[in-house]
Write a structure and sequence with these properties.
- This protein is of the alpha/beta class.
- Helix content is 45%, strand content 22%.
- The protein is built from 15 helices and 20 strands.
- The strands form five sheets. The chain has a five-stranded antiparallel beta sheet, sandwiched between helices.
- Helix 1 (2-13) packs antiparallel against helix 2 (18-32).
- The protein is elongated, with a radius of gyration of 50 Å.
């Protein structure tokens, strides 16, 4: 019996797979049971269940004394085969993972100076797997000479404290190529506190380091000033151009202190307080809570602004050229025709003048087309200087009785002619004149007129700005707007601002009739 059991144990030990073990064991089991029938099945029949879901042995012979220890030998052999298969699978998956990650692991037994390296760690060092014992001295021989002292100091610190360590070291392969490794590990101590083992992992980060070096080179040679900010907006890193543009020091400062915000032509200040005009853009480098990083790109906007200003000036010159041609074709020619007809046919001269005024208003409408969707607003009609005509002449003063009229126009000749027309045709008292919006408000307060004849385009304050102030100063006053602008473009705005009537300047104004109508409606 003992010899038979020993033969079974030896036969099972020599096999490495479950199928090989079963093939060798079943005949021997039959002999041990006196030739009884024993069969294997994968179905969960009643019988002896083998380890690891291997199947079931169905016994058709009577159980003997030898059967129980024999089955124990078989079970142990099958369990060993399963364990070896699982271990081999685990090692294969680990090796595949380390190969994909370009990572290796080590386990140095300090007392024996023997070091178990994974296959991938050998490859990282440019060596064939398991080709030598990676003793500590052999390991140090691969370390870049400039890094050896630092690496040994890190290890000595780990020996003394038992604390985990992390480091980046350079290794020099036998072919002379330099690789960068990121390593971490820990020294394990025995019960007496003596360092016993040092184990950890290494990752080849050469490609990442070289990519970072290339990126940093690009950053340093970039025409932009580049800053890297943390989640709170503090400056972590800068390139040389940023230091040149903004001044030193920058690291640790808050970007908000320098008034750095994204946008074109943003006004900001150097650390010395000097103003700059910058184009600023930002980009997120990471979005992980407090670990987030943001890059800020700054470029001096002076050259761009100067180019845009030059382009705007060229466009303005082109617009003025076109406007000058339109004025010549539509206004000057019409005025010349009116002058020539004046001595021969006054009616025709008047027709030419009316046509010319209409053409002038159309031109103004064209030139006042809203820019970027923005229509005219109060203040847009302020003149740089009062309107003037070439010939100034004093109009006779005619004293009349009320109603009281205040004439507001920045052109002195127009004011005189309006005074002459009103006083010669109607029994009104002209109480005063004003040449701009501010003066109109002041004269309304001081003179308290019944009617204000108000121009729109004037210096200092235009008519649209002055209207609500005149109304507030004298709620009972009647305001008639007299303007050279086409009523289609300006009448609604004037009435909304508080005017009682809107008249286009020209031959058909009929001031007396309009004043009577406005006063009669009061």
């Amino acid at each position: 019996m003992v010899d038979a059991l020993s033969e079974l144990a030896v036969s099972c030990a020599q096999k490495s797979t479950v199928s090989e073990i079963l093939a060798a064991a079943l005949p021997l089991l039959q002999e041990l049971t006196g030739g009884g029938a024993i069969r294997w099945t994968s179905d969960p029949d009643s019988g002896h269940a083998l380890p690891g879901n291997t199947g079931t042995l169905v016994l058709t012979a009577e159980e003997t004394e030898q059967l129980t220890p024999a089955l124990a030998i078989l079970d142990n052999a099958i369990a060993r085969a399963h364990a070896q298969t699982a271990l081999a699978d685990l090692e294969e998956r680990m090796n595949n993972a380390q190969s994909l990650a370009n990572m290796g692991d080590y386990d140095w037994h300090i007392a024996s100076n023997t070091n178990r390296w994974s296959d991938q760690l050998y490859r990282i060092y440019g060596q064939a797997p398991q080709s030598f014992n990676a003793s500590y001295d052999r390991f140090l021989s691969f370390i870049h000479p400039d890094d050896r002292e630092r690496i040994q100091a890190i290890h000595q610190q780990a020996y003394a404290t038992g604390e985990p360590y992390e480091m980046i070291e350079r290794i020099v392969r036998e072919d002379g190529k330099v690789r960068y490794l990121a390593s971490n590990g820990q020294v394990l101590h025995d019960a007496t506190g003596t360092p016993e083992r040092m184990r950890g992992t290494c990752i080849d980060i050469t490609d990442r380091v070289r990519a970072e070096e290339t990126f940093r080179s690009l950053v340093e040679t970039s025409p932009d000033a580049i800053l890297v900010l943390d989640h709170a907006g503090s400056i972590l890193e800068v390139n040389g151009h940023a230091s040149t543009l903004l001044g030193e020091p920058l690291i640790g400062r808050a970007a908000a202190d320098l008034r750095l915000v994204a946008g074109e032509g943003v006004a900001t200040f150097t650390v010395t307080g000097e103003p700059l005009r910058l184009d600023i853009t930002t980009a997120n480098l990471s979005d992980i809570g407090e670990g987030c990083r943001r890059a800020m790109f700054l470029r001096d906007a002076t050259a761009r602004i100067e180019r845009e200003q030059l382009a705007a000036q060229l466009r303005e010159i082109q617009v003025r050229r076109r406007q000058a041609l339109e004025v010549n074709d539509n206004i000057v020619q019409g005025l010349v025709a009116a002058v020539l007809a004046m001595n021969h046919n006054p009616g025709m001269a008047k027709s030419y003048m009316e046509t010319t005024l209409a053409a002038a208003r159309r031109l103004m409408d064209d030139w006042l087309e809203p820019l970027s969707g923005e229509d005219l607003r109060p203040g847009d009609l302020i003149r740089r200087s009062p309107s003037t005509l070439v010939i100034e002449q004093a109009a006779p003063t005619i004293t009349s009785l009320r109603p009281r009229i205040l004439i507001v126009d920045d052109n002195g000749v127009v004011r005189n002619l309006m005074r002459l027309e009103i006083e010669s045709l109607h029994n009104y008292e002209i109480v005063g004149e004003a040449a701009d919006g501010e003066e109109a408000v002041a004269r309304t307060i001081a003179l308290k007129p019944d009617v204000v004849l108000l121009d729109l385009a004037m210096p200092t304050m235009d008519g649209l700005q002055a209207l609500p102030l005149i109304r507030a100063a004298s709620p009972a006053v009647r305001v008639i707007v007299l303007s050279g602008f086409d009523s289609r473009s300006m009448a609604e705005k004037a009435l909304e601002a508080g005017a009682d009537r809107y008249l286009e300047k020209g031959f058909e104004m009929d001031l007396g009739i309009v004043i009577d109508e406005v006063l009669g409606a009061a």
